[in-house]
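Section 3.1: Structural characterization of target chains.
Under the original work plan, the team committed to producing a structural model for every single-chain target entering the pipeline before any wet-lab resources were allocated. The record below documents one such target. The sequence was received from the expression subgroup and is listed exactly as submitted; it comprises 397 residues.
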Amino acid sequence: MEEREAILLLSQIPSVTPAHLVSLKTTGLSFSEFIQNPKDALSFCHPERSEGSVEVNIDSSASPQNDKSLFRNNFLNPGIIQTIEEIKSSTNSSKILKDCDKNKIQITTFFDAAYPKFLKEIHKPPLVLYVKGELIPEDEIAVSIVGARYASAYGMRIAKRISYELAEAGVTIVSGLARGIDGEAHKGALEARGRTIAVLGSGIDVVYPKEHEKLFKEISESGAVVSEFPLGTPPHAFNFPQRNRIIAGFSQGILVVEAHYRSGSLITASLASEEGREVYALPGPVDSVQSNGTNQLLKEGAKLVTSSEDILSDLRDVFGSLIAEVISSEEKEDIKDAQDFNPEEEKLIQVLGADKLTLDDIQEKSDFDFSGLCAILTLLELRGKVKKLAGGLYEAV
């Protein structure tokens, strides 16, 4: 058995961490030797034990430091040895390797040079990453963008805009492939022809949500999709808090665009803060449920973000000229709008702003006569500048 195959088997056990295997390496045993006969590790560390005994005495005051570390981490014990034997009998590691090779899925272990530098620094880094696409050194300059699945049009628009501008400046965008803010963050990076990484809460061969299959493919072709979960793992709810620590760990900082009080995005922000990463938040209306969480983050000390430059300026302090100067979306839109809109159209777009308004609301705020207002709205709808929603509401696109 090769070392890679042994690490793959050990990664199937949730309680096994890189810290355990680093301790194991200090004993002189290889991972494959340990997998083939884990009971040998006990006698190797405690030769005074009688043969076949698996009783563990955690009083290691007279033991070598490596032995102390192993036992302090509660690694070598009868339970873990039994679990390893069960995993060996139930898991066909060679088939997993063949399936990954067939489907162009790379397996990157904690001990590989390609393992992401900043992810390795978190409290509990994943032992193995399944990668569809490619992780590259430039991905060290990364920002995570997360938020509500059922986000507002405002949140979706700003997430995509900021993602586009960050990616245009050479920043890799990390998110979770979820509906809403995550999806828009990935799309913004792709439209800028930049790098984006999607971190899954399922096996890498299980696309969730299904409507993001095309997005999954696009990301894997120009960035990377990653998961720590074994192939075939369904997207169980309890996987996502575990997934969130990887989203936080990949990045220099995390931007929360919209989130309610109990959102998983706040868990990700908390994990990022614990790991010493910068937390950014987009302010939102005080009466918006989607913005309760982000506004609370701002109260607690998160950095307020109204444009990509708020993040880029911090990154330039660390990476200097590696962060490119960009023309903001606002500046681009100003140029484009000046060319695209006549004065009446521009006034109507300004009236709509980030709101969703009825015809009566728009007429009251704009002083247009009814027939003229309907004509302008129709033209803007045809041009894709205004969208008509259910309930007779309109919003700017």
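The radius of gyration is 26 Å.
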